[in-house]
Design goal:
This protein is an alpha/beta fold. The protein is built from 12 helices and 7 strands. The strands form 2 sheets. It has a 5-stranded mixed sheet with strand order 4-3-7-5-6. Strand 5 and strand 6 form a beta hairpin. Helix 8 packs antiparallel against helix 9 and helix 9 packs antiparallel against helix 10. The protein binds iron/sulfur cluster (SF4).
Length: 316
């Protein structure tokens, strides 16, 4: 594409390990003549730089990242124009996740067909499943797409303490939560997770066992989106705060049954009405938690802030 410069944008929290590791690799690449002027006598010039962000989640949105890279506050841009036409400093820009670029050398070495055939139809290749929550061995697992969720769970040593699985968020906190009974039948690929009412998203898998209070989880998620909203659009800026305050009120024992529909109403008014996907990301957990676990919210409202999970444990 005739680009002569590239930037690896790494968020600020990763200063301790990924940044020095990448810098060392960069030095090796320059020393080996794989970067810089006239690479390997090809006549191609290409310089690659590290750029360390300040740690805002929203700078994972490509146009916010570009603004941040230009030294501005990282806020998503209106699209179009898209980065391919008007990107960094107004120049045509290609922008991808590091994980995608990291797959390229293997694909070039072994062929696109080989890579595609690692996974099922429509979900070729591998994903790095970043498993957290109630498992014995949380971590990052690079595996072919399409692996059954039960196999992934087994690789992680199973549910923590041998407890029962309650629910899974299969693709990062923004995608819809899936109850255990459904999740145990799904494979970790685009089509299967879509059929299960969720999405593979970033392949960050959050596992929750039977001791999890879903109201508390949703409050934690909504607090995250409230604090990471860049504040540009009113539905996201005001709506995320509204969601969080309502959930806090329910947890504090001051909730009303009508708050549950209020949560859905606010989420529905955010979804699809914002500049970037963070608004949708804030709305989807609310919609899915209330769809699958509404009884937990109702119980807490009815019992002055007590969790149904706690009641079940006391009864046991
Ligand atoms: S949706 Fe939220 S994060 Fe995205 S641009 Fe609007 S206010 Fe900012």
């Amino acid at each position: 594409m005739n680009a002569t410069v590239g930037y690896n944008y790494i968020r600020g929290e990763f200063l301790a390990e990924p940044v020095p590791r990448f810098e060392a690799a960069l030095k090796e690449a320059y020393e080996a003549g794989l970067l810089g002027k006239n690479i390997q006598g090809s006549g191609i010039d290409f310089d690659l730089h590290t750029y360390v962000g300040a740690g805002a989640y929203i700078c994972g949105e490509e146009t916010a990242l570009l603004d941040s890279l230009e030294g501005k506050t990282g806020k998503p841009r209106f699209k179009p124009p898209f980065p391919a036409a008007f990107g960094l400093y107004g120049m045509p820009t290609t922008i991808n996740n590091t994980q995608s670029y990291a797959s390229v050398p293997t694909i070039l070495r072994r062929g696109a067909q080989w890579f595609a055939e690692l996974g099922p139809k429509n979900s070729g290749g591998t994903a790095i499943f970043s498993v957290s929550g109630h498992v014995e061995k949380p971590g990052n697992f690079e595996l072919p797409l399409g692996i059954p969720f039960v196999d992934l769970l087994e690789l992680c040593g199973g549910v923590l303490g041998g407890r029962q699985l309650k629910a899974v968020i299969p693709g990062g906190s923004s995608v819809p939560v899936v109850p255990a009974a459904t999740m145990l039948k799904l494979n970790m690929d685009y089509d299967s997770l879509r059929a299960g009412g969720s999405s593979i998203g970033s392949a960050a898998v959050i596992v929750m066992d039977e001791t999890t209070c879903m109201v508390r989880v949703l409050e934690r998620l909504s607090r995250f989106y409230m604090s990471e909203s860049c504040g540009q659009c009113t539905p996201c800026r005001e709506g995320t705060g509204w969601l969080n305050r309502t959930l806090k009120r329910i947890l504090a024992g001051q909730g009303r049954q009508e708050d549950l529909n209020l949560l859905l109403d606010v989420a529905n008014r955010i979804e699809g009405h914002t500049i970037c996907g963070l608004g949708d990301a804030a709305a989807w957990p609310v919609q899915s938690f209330l769809k699958h676990f509404r009884h937990e919210f109702e119980y807490m409202v009815e019992h002055g802030g007590s969790s149904i999970v706690l009641a079940a444990r006391v009864a046991a």
